[in-house]
Write a structure and sequence with these properties.
The complex is a heterodimer of chains A (266) and B (84). Chain A has 11 helices and 8 strands. Chain A is an alpha/beta fold and 266 residues long. Chain A has a single domain, classed as 3-Layer(aba) Sandwich (Rossmann fold). Chain A has an 8-stranded mixed beta sheet, sandwiched between helices. The longest helix of chain A is centred in the middle third of the chain and has 16 residues. In chain A, 47% of the residues are buried. Chain B has 84 residues and is α+β, with helices and mostly antiparallel strands. Chain B has a domain of 55 residues. Chain B contains 3 helices and 2 strands; from the N terminus they run H-H-E-E-H. Chain B has a two-stranded antiparallel ribbon with strand order 1-2. In chain B, strand 1 and strand 2 form a beta hairpin. The longest helix of chain B has 18 residues. The interface between A and B is medium-sized, with 21 and 16 residues.
Chain lengths: 266, 84
């Protein structure tokens, strides 16, 4: 096998990059693939807590780069999926500890026996972002249907175009179907029209995402969660499957049960 | 503004973003765009008479690319002679 390297970025902070990485990695690992996540946010380590692996860290990515450990030693195995690993960020303040060529080398070493390498980019368009996109075969841009997030996403897409990083795909995260229906939130169509890139998934706003992060158990493993379903679908699209987009029309539970009854009578 | 006439916040978000993205992508401020329009019209007016009031110049989006679109009506000879 030779891994596909996927970098998740956004420009603006707080739109759900780390949550997306944790969920996509778990979702793809659920499908039996071998996945390695890399936390690219040096100095602000976060992916470990979202994945529930914070107590298992011994070595980090800077230890690998500076030769204090072997790459394998910095790969933390997930609690639930045997084939899911995390390479944590360092908490060092020296953001220059990692370079784009270091990232390319680490990914090259991992490629041979991994299916997916998923890199969590830091916010912004500085060094950490450049490191994160350097080894990418594919870039996913996460945004929220909100003016500042869309504007920053557009800046990032512009840089990716200038760097000839291929066509990025868009994840619209935290879409609230009721606000969209009341014309008080940009719709997925609006965001796509503004940014002019391909869509890979729409994740509805869902309280269970926070509950999952609280527990260090990403929501993708919760079969009842709508956001979890959306992330499972994106994971399958990354594996090359054609999965239709979810219907995000707001529906009352009463209406849903009527539909179920009607469907049952057929 | 009454409740029923209020424009939805989603459409103001979209309109504002459309404008701001054009400027971000072209690195052209509204002031610079105005200056560009003035220079363009001055240059054209040296060769041919134009209907300055009906001129429309703006940056339009086309997917991820932008184009400067100018609609510059010319005064035809008959109009010019009558005017003269």
């Amino acid at each position: 096998m030779t891994a596909q390297v996927i970098t998740v970025t956004s420009g603006k902070g707080g739109v759900g990059k780390t949550t997306a990485v944790a969920n996509l990695a778990n979702g793809i690992a659920m499908d039996g693939k071998r996945v390695v996540c890399i936390d690219g946010d040096i100095g602000l380590r976060n992916l470990d807590v979202v994945m529930g692996l914070e107590n298992r860290i011994v070595y980090d990515i800077v230890d690998v780069i500076e030769g204090r450990c072997k790459l394998r030693q910095a790969m933390i195995r997930d609690k639930h999926y045997q084939e899911l690993y995390l390479i944590p960020a360092a908490q060092t303040r020296d953001k220059n500890a990692v370079s784009p060529s270091d990232m390319i080398r680490i990914c090259k070493d991992l490629r041979a026996d991994t299916d997916f390498i998923i890199i969590d980019s830091p916010a912004g368009i500085e060094r950490g972002f450049r490191n994160a996109i350097a080894p990418a075969d594919r870039v996913l841009v996460v945004t929220n249907p909100e003016v500042s997030a869309v504007r920053d996403a557009d800046r990032v897409v512009g840089i990716l175009e200038a760097e000839e990083k291929g066509n990025p795909a868009l994840i619209i995260n935290r879409l609230n179907p009721i606000l969209v229906k009341n014309n008080d939130m940009l719709s997925a169509e609006d965001v796509l029209d503004l940014l002019g890139i391909q869509l890979i998934g729409i994740v509805p706003e869902d309280e269970s995402v926070i509950i999952g992060s609280n527990r260090g158990a990403p929501v993708v493993t919760d079969p009842k969660s709508r956001a979890g379903q959306a992330f499972r679908n994106i994971g399958k699209r990354l594996q090359g499957e054609e999965i239709p987009f979810m219907d995000l029309e707001p529906q009352s539970t009463l209406w849903k049960s009527i539909q179920r009854m009607a469907g049952g009578r057929k | 503004m009454g409740f029923f006439t209020r424009k939805s916040s989603a459409s103001s978000a979209k309109e504002r973003l459309q404008l701001v993205l054009v400027h971000d992508r072209t690195d052209l401020t509204p002031t610079e765009l105005e200056a560009l329009k003035d220079d363009l019209l001055k240059a054209i007016s040296r060769y041919i008479e134009i209907d300055a009031d009906a001129v429309q110049i703006g940056v339009e989006r086309d997917g991820r690319s932008q184009r400067l679109v100018a609609d510059i009506p010319l005064k035809n000879v008959a109009t010019r002679q009558r005017a003269g």
